[in-house]
Design goal:
The protein has 148 residues and is mostly helical. It has six helices and two strands, in the order H-H-H-H-H-E-E-H.
Length: 148
């Protein structure tokens, strides 16, 4: 069973990070004495929906999907990912950053490793469960004599 709360927690961390960055920018550039504006519940829900859909869209990119599937087994260096996916280091960096921005992977600069976050692990489990279900259903339909 997929833990939607783990994926949601990863998205919530991203929302928190974005809000903190916006608050710092507002305090520094626009109005240093003005308190940060709180999001209304409806705005908060719309923001969460936007970031969830953005994470799904980012993860569904064929290269990003391949990276996530590769990282389910263990962490990897950017150089190894570049070689494995036949991408330039710059392209690999950008794909990994897209996944980081969406809370699906994390990076350890000290060890030069990229790995799945808890949200990323749950996303991978979600996709694998759907694939397994589709495969089993297609096989069962095939065993029953084909299509309709």
């Amino acid at each position: 069973m997929v833990d939607a709360a783990a994926i949601g927690a990863g998205i919530a961390e991203r929302i928190k990070a974005i809000r903190l960055a916006l608050d710092r920018q507002q305090a520094f550039v626009f109005a240093p004495d003005e308190p940060p504006r709180e999001l209304a519940a409806a705005e908060s829900a719309a923001t969460a929906e936007h970031l969830v859909l953005r994470a799904l869209r980012t993860a569904a990119d064929p290269v990003n999907h391949g990276l996530l599937m590769r990282l389910r087994d263990d962490d990897s260096s950017l150089a190894e990912l570049s070689r494995r996916f036949e991408l330039s280091p710059v392209s690999t960096w950008e794909h990994v950053n897209d996944l980081i921005q969406n809370g699906l992977v994390g990076r350890s600069f000290e060890r030069d490793l990229v790995g799945l976050s808890e949200a990323g692990r749950e996303y991978v489990a979600f996709v694998e469960a759907i694939i397994e279900s589709a495969t089993a259903t297609a096989a069962a339909d095939s065993d029953e004599g084909g299509g309709r």
